[in-house]
Amino acid sequence: MKPINEVTSVLTPLDRKNVDTDQIISKEFLKRIERTGFGKYLFYHWRFNADDTKVEDFILNDERFKESKILVAHENFGCGSSREHAPWSILDYGFNVVIAPSFADIFYSNCMKNGLLPIRLDVSEVEELLAKGKQQPYTIHVNLEKQTVTGQDEKAYSFDIDPYYKQMLLNGWDEIALTFQYESHITKYEERQQQLV
Amino acid sequence: MMKNIIEKIWDQHVVYEEKGKPDLLYIDLHLLHEVTSPQAFEGLRLANRTVRQPELCFATMDHNVPTRNRDAIQDPIALKQINTLQTNCDEFNIPLANMDHPDQGIVHIIGPELGLTQPGKTIVCGDSHTSTHGAFGSIAFGIGTSEVEHVLSTQTLWQAKPKTMEVRINGKLGFGVTSKDVILAIISKFGIDMGTGHIIEFTGEAIRNLTMEERMTVCNMSIEAGAKAGLISPDETTVAYLKGRKHVPEGAAFDKAAAYWLSLATDEGATYDTIVEIDAADIEPFVTWGTNPSMGSGISAHIPYAKDFESESDKDALKKALTYMGLEEGMPLTSIAIQHVFIGSCTNARLSDLRAAAKVVAGKKVHSSVTAIVVPGSRTVKKQAEEEGLASVFIEAGFEWRETGCSMCLAMNDDVVPAGERCASTSNRNFEGRQGAGSRTHLMSPEMAAASAIAGCFVDVREMQAI
Lengths: 197, 467
Ligand code: SF4
Known about the structure:
By secondary structure, chain A is an alpha/beta fold. Chain A is 34% helix and 17% strand.
């Protein structure tokens, strides 16, 4: 996966809570056997009407956010299905960062495995970002190394992230290769279990 | 030290621990299906890796298999996924119950049925409803495809130790109230993110009185409460269910295993990070009216008003949900007419579910404006239901009797609810478009769905059962 550290872009304010992974990527698009090519299906039924015309008032269809790399939403983002197609489609569409007050567990860990940075900020901080972002395009700068989010008006926020995941994202590590360094522990564990039977 | 069951199982499975890192956890059983695994196998091949313990894996095909004309799959992309799983299992020596195998079925139904699911195991699957297996007193949770790949090649996962939560259901359930109503009532009361970061243990008199199949329904939906997993301490009910199943040890080895299983139960006096309680007597048959599983009410209630909520975002969420669902604030639930009934899914398509639904519909007819289907959870369930005569009860009442699979639970095959139409469903998710673009899903128990099929609208099934 690609390393990630600094990202600067206007934020896309997605004014919803409990955004579930069925909405992020609908099941009719899960039949591919590759990891790529899911971006065009992101939020498909929110972006397009049944006749495939654009839903004009959906935020992702607003030209001003076309180049945005940062998605901001309310609580419990990514709930529901474990489909990793959700972060794949978000990344493939062009976002590198999702900011919300909270994330569902499986989605959060799926982000980490793909180099999509999920940032938890306080509810009030997210509300503030959303309010500014809705008023007019609002550019923010994310720095993972420093664990900060800074707005164009210099308003700054800091966030927490597990140090293990932070290193993984910063370095773009392959987790399986890392785990192989502990193979002797796995073998020992298996031998111990064998003796118990 | 007193430990709860979650701590006991966790501690036993830590392969490696170091401060500042998640624990490296050993995985005892890895279940696979056709939709979330192809990219994982592809990853193995690209990196020249192999499967560490193929015999700890078990695969089946369920998500996009057709429930009619299974021999001629029309959808070429679905067929490709099904064939890909077959090839991957052949290449990596993974046991597979494919479409022709008598054990085939929804992955969370066949794991327990075959006795693969056992107390004390760590169980994962690229599917969020893996929490179902927790009913046996195992730590079972859904994972993403990268984690599937990680488990395939290392048989482990890096996992931060979750917090623990006790959800206690006190007292006895009333007449006609099912385990589906219990879990829907819990989620409605505490919200769909109540369990985030936690593993839940369900306890209390009402839980102890449930059969294994009913316990599976509760644990199945712990993910809808946002929990990493949900489980129930093993007891004699658990041991009795497992005895004689295909992958369970026999004779003296069974007695030894059973003693170990029972020893895993939470110690008297053990604590949790969070405890919540609910009274069984307060729960009535439940129906959801919104677009997530917490948006539901007892059948005697009405849809809430925006003014009942304090925050603007909650008012807004209610309005958005009702617009999507084509419903109004304040409507009584019993005034809502339906066009479809789906009895199926890993939540409620076991033999006992079909028995309960058949009892409600026996001798009656499906309402003329309703299309109703029954999709058994596995081929074994289907066969047993046919032998018992349940299939003919459904067919005589006007239900369609289908082959097994996930079917209309997520509508990846051609079992789809058309846009704008309403379905009484025994599945677990009522998200927008879950059963087809524009479809409107209402979650409930098999009994309630069966009663709705007859009445053509939501009714209190207890009125039918009392007669
Ligand atoms: S029945 Fe539904 S919830 Fe269960 S595994 Fe299949 S798609 Fe998932």
